[in-house]
Amino acid sequence: DILNLFDDTTEVLTVMDGGNVGIGTVIPTEKLEVNGNVKAASFLYSSDERLKKDITTLSGSLEKILNLRGVQFKWKNGGDDENIGFIAQEVEKVAPQVVKNGSDGLKSVEYGNIVPLLVEAMKEQQKEIESLKTEIEILKGNR
């Protein structure tokens, strides 16, 4: 059975047999799918070490970040509001771990999971900076 609640002629809430819940959408493809903005005090990602296995430090993060393209865009069905973000198909070529394929055929990006790439890229960059500082000091001393 599917539960649908309507506000006049607009879909407000849908609960599917499999437990998927949709707000503003008739056919939710995820456990919770919202067609519109979501406002919250915070979003939490499960991250406890006890939940993870095969843990390794990311490598090549700077190169991956340099290969990401930030874009400005308007949603086709969202009016004229300007947005910024990524194109999922482009991100998938660089960091496939953060791109999910929906059962509706559309791709999504786990934006929050790009943060570890940024942190490791910054650390790689800092190592390069420290190496260059050392090289400059050596060159200064040789004059």
Task: Give an account of the 3D structure.
The protein is an alpha+beta fold and 143 residues long. It is 28% helix and 20% strand. It has helices spanning 61-66, 88-94, 115-141, and strands at residues 3-7, 10-15, 21-23, 32-34, 71-73, 83-85, 99-101, 107-109. The strands form three sheets. A four-stranded mixed beta sheet has the order 1-2-3-4, with no helix packed on it. It has a two-stranded antiparallel ribbon with strand order 5-6.
SSE blueprint:
Layout: E1 3-7, E2 10-15, E3 21-23, E4 32-34, H1 61-66, E5 71-73, E6 83-85, H2 88-94, E7 99-101, E8 107-109, H3 115-141
Parallel strand pairs: 3-4
Antiparallel strand pairs: 1-2, 2-3, 5-6, 7-8
Q: Strand pairing plus helix content: what structural class?
A: alpha+beta
Alpha plus pi helix count? 3
Q: Order of strands in the sheet with the most strands?
A: 1-2-3-4
SSE series: EEEEHEEHEEH
Uncertain residue ranges: none
Average the pLDDT over all residues and give the rounded result. 91
Helix content: 25-40%
Compute the number of strand runs: 8
Radius of gyration: 22 Å
Largest sheet: 4 strands, mixed
Strand content: 15-25%
Shape summary: elongated
The span between the termini is 82 Å
